[in-house]
């Protein structure tokens, strides 16, 4: 049996303490995290709080709060909210040095006023139980309590139970073992929910850079929930098995081999009961294999590698009710399908001197998608290849330049004539350079320039009716200047200019008919300076300008270039930051942009970004 019954594995987990030793307890970090962001008419709140409160006489409280809220303000009278709130209170008492008893209170409330669907629900839980830590590397939890669930204005009450066993890595005969078992369920009237997860990891470090590991994961989930206000139910059952192996082998001091393998299977079934009548069962099954091998060589300043990757995925669907065949949805809604991917890669990094380095990377892959359904015409082959060439030169500790070129090719071929009109070639070429100049710690200048050309051509195209092939070109140049000390007064300037061009492409003559030209400018400049201790202030101005020209044919067949109205946004920006290490960080950024659109409309937009993280 591929999926063993959960109760058998749970009983097995109760005997794990007999093979472990090493007493002790783990420590928990108190955390407070706040995030807020406003961008035009959208508002986001993110709050996370965790506090462990030790009390007198071996008592302890653990408070946890996670609150997420989204607001979409479409008008003054109609705000669209979405709230997600989870509160947890855990009380513990040390009954013995390795057994704690306590209670658990958990409340989750979700309210949706954005999508227009009745997605609201609330779940409240009260449970009592015990936590056993017979060793420092093992913890077993058992909880039993009462749970209330409310959806579609229907409230269900029932029994809740959870059994969990988790261990830190422990050694057995030089092998590292780690185990986690979690089983919980709800017994409501007319509904039963089950959630089970088993995860086991076995690894061994033989010697330097040589190790092997095996990870086994088994999951089972059954959920029954209301789907209408009249009490209609839907039951979803999911099963999953994952088997992963990762091997690293040092063949010689200069050769390292990595091999990873993954085998998985997933199945799900859905059954609806509408007006006390079953609407039939729909099932889906996924099976797959993933395999990757990489051979690495290192000799002096040269590093190179050759690798291969293969993946296979199969999906099958079935239904107890018949669905009318359609060339768009297949015979059962989604057709059975099989996909295969084979890829090869090679890379080379060569440093002929301490100042020069050359990088090359080549990737070639083939993807094949097949469906046995005669009503589906989505079968296709895809060929992809990419090559990267990069060169870096460090003239001195203060001056560094680099050149990089990329080429990408994608060929898409549909196997049936019904969709072969979409067969196409996509070719992308990029060439970029950068310069980094830092003559002293108080001055840094970085510049980057890049040219990109995208040519997309279709195999079958009627020149008399419609040209689908297109070309897109883009030139980008970036300048960034910083003057001053990072911890004292500093001036910053950032400018980015983009020149874009769109047009119809005639590949055989390699010519184009221009359709659109666009010029974009991004500009930010300002200064930062300390206010009090580590509190830093950043004050500046930010702006964006877009200018666009369209090309239209005249009655004589010539192209007429027409300038469109500009899109402009600009405004002040203020930022306060308090960097004080990994445990405490805070920053707030506020800007107000004045925006002028091509339609002549003008309005102001506020942008606020607040982040705070505190560990205590």
Can you characterise this structure?
The chain has one helix at 6-13; strands spanning 31-39, 42-54, 59-73, 79-96, 99-112, 121-135, 138-151, 154-167, 170-172, 175-188, 191-207, 210-226, 233-252, 255-274, 277-299, 302-319, 337-350, 356-370, 380-396, 399-414, 424-440, 443-458, 470-484, 490-506, 511-532, 535-553, 559-563, 567-579, 584-596, 602-615. It is an all-beta fold and 616 residues long. It has a 28-stranded antiparallel β-barrel. A hairpin with a 4-residue loop joins strand 24 and strand 25 (511-532).
Number of helical regions: 1
Q: What is the tally of beta strands? A: 30
| Main sheet makeup | 28 strands, antiparallel, barrel
- Oligomeric state of shown chains: single chain
Structural class: mainly beta
Helix content: under 10%
Spans of 5+ residues with little confidence (pLDDT < 50)?
A: 1-27, 323-332
Structural shape? globular
Overall pLDDT level: 88
What fraction of the residues are assigned to beta strands by DSSP? Answer: over 45%
Question: How far is it from the N-terminal to the C-terminal residue, by CA?
Answer: 48 Å
What value does the Rg take, in angstroms?
31 Å
Summarize the entry for a quick read.
With 616 residues, the chain is mainly β.
Key descriptive features of the protein:
74% strand; 1% helix; 30 strands
Write the layout of secondary structure elements.
Blueprint: H1 6-13, E1 31-39, E2 42-54, E3 59-73, E4 79-96, E5 99-112, E6 121-135, E7 138-151, E8 154-167, E9 170-172, E10 175-188, E11 191-207, E12 210-226, E13 233-252, E14 255-274, E15 277-299, E16 302-319, E17 337-350, E18 356-370, E19 380-396, E20 399-414, E21 424-440, E22 443-458, E23 470-484, E24 490-506, E25 511-532, E26 535-553, E27 559-563, E28 567-579, E29 584-596, E30 602-615
Antiparallel strand pairs: 1-2, 1-30, 2-3, 3-4, 4-5, 5-6, 6-7, 7-8, 8-10, 9-10, 10-11, 11-12, 12-13, 13-14, 14-15, 15-16, 16-17, 17-18, 18-19, 19-20, 20-21, 21-22, 22-23, 23-24, 24-25, 25-26, 26-27, 26-28, 28-29, 29-30
